[in-house]
Task: inverse folding
């Protein structure tokens, strides 16, 4: 409830600012201003409905308003950012001259007639309209390109990783890492089919799905997830929960469904992956959000059966969990969650909260790989953070 109230307040302030800059400052009192005001009110209500109703009425029933609502969400973000950047030059061009009020004289009538607009008023109106046009065009362009990025095929990244303690016989072992597929009102079965096809074309040895697969229940989205049964890899496909798996009433239902589809959940547990004389331990921990239902991460349990003589690869949805992994000597952690920031410039905020946004980094002696994810959450827009599927190629230090 508190989050909902804060979000509503933020959206209200954003829309008030947009009304001030795009409606009040660019129009004179009259019919046009009233029409534009009511249009903005309706868009505000549409956005609130888009953020709230899908969890109440389900993804299928939400699709018709979720598309325009989430696209408007993205436009709101970039309209605000661009208008904020334009504030200083707009004020500089306006100058600080203000129209002097009419001074009453002894001979002046009791009622003062408002004079026609002065050059100063006309200049303010012109600058307000010009900045509104610039912001509108730029925002539409950014969101349009961002939609093409989000709805297009994910980038296929190939990343070599040198893993300490890896036996040379496992050189070239390929792990396809995918995260944040986010099946929901805007992404359905075709989205899953494309991801499965792209993964299979790489002929991976193992598939790691690092959380946030769905935004809904098995009943609502089970058919959209069905193509996962077509994943082909030598050692199988594995899954760990993300925070969105805990947004439904029964998150364990999805784990049972994935097992039916041939995807093995790792719930604070590990398994040994062997090839030839080499081996590594693959472990998985639940997402931090699971703690709300007593199903949170348990590193001690997940790593209790690993062998210190061989490397351990850990699947953990959130990059911030790497501190625990490094403390326990994990060689490599695979994560998602960040979407690479999804909408620039929010990657700066994500970096502050998670420590890593995308790509390969090292925390103490533990390597961390963060995929940008193959889907999107909220707006079907990615700016500066295209979706990806990553194939990691392991190699030994020798």
Result:
């Amino acid at each position: 409830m508190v989050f909902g109230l804060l979000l509503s307040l933020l959206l209200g302030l954003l829309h008030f600012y947009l009304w001030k800059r795009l409606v009040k400052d660019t129009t004179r009192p009259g019919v046009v201003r009233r029409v534009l005001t009511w249009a903005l009110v309706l868009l505000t209500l549409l956005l609130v409905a888009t953020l709230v109703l899908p969890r109440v009425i389900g993804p299928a029933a939400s699709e018709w308003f979720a598309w325009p609502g989430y696209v408007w969400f993205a436009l709101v973000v970039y309209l605000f950012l661009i208008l904020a950047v334009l504030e200083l030059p707009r004020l500089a061009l306006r100058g600080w001259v203000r129209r002097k009020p009419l001074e009453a004289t002894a001979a002046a009538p009791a009622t003062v007639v408002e004079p026609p607009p002065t050059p100063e008023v006309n200049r303010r109106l012109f600058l307000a309209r010009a900045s509104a046009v610039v912001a509108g065009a730029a925002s539409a362009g950014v969101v349009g390109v961002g939609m093409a990025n989000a709805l297009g095929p994910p980038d296929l990244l190939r990343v070599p990783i040198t893993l300490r303690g890896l036996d040379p016989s496992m050189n070239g072992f390929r792990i396809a890492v995918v995260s944040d597929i986010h099946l929901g009102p805007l992404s359905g079965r075709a989205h899953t089919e494309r991801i499965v096809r792209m993964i299979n074309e790489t002929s991976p040895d193992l598939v790691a799905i690092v959380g946030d697969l769905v935004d809904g229940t098995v009943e609502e989205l089970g058919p959209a997830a069905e193509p996962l049964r077509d994943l082909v890899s030598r050692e199988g496909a594995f899954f760990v929960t993300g925070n969105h798996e805990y947004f439904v009433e029964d998150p364990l239902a999805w784990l049972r469904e994935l097992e039916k589809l041939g995807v093995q959940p790792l719930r604070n547990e590990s398994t040994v992956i062997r090839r030839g004389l080499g081996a590594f331990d693959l472990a998985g921990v639940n997402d931090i959000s699971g703690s709300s239902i007593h199903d949170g991460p348990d590193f001690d349990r997940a790593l209790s059966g690993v062998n210190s003589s061989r490397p351990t690869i850990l699947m953990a949805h959130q990059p911030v969990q790497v501190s625990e992994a490094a403390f326990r000597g994990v060689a490599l952690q695979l994560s998602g969650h960040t979407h690479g920031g999804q909408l620039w410039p929010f990657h700066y905020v994500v970096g502050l909260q998670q420590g890593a946004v995308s790509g390969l980094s090292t925390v103490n002696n533990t390597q961390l790989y963060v995929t940008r994810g193959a889907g999107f959450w909220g707006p079907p827009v990615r700016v500066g953070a295209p979706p990806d599927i990553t194939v990691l190629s392991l190699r030994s230090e020798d």
Observations:
- The longest strand covers residues 155-162.
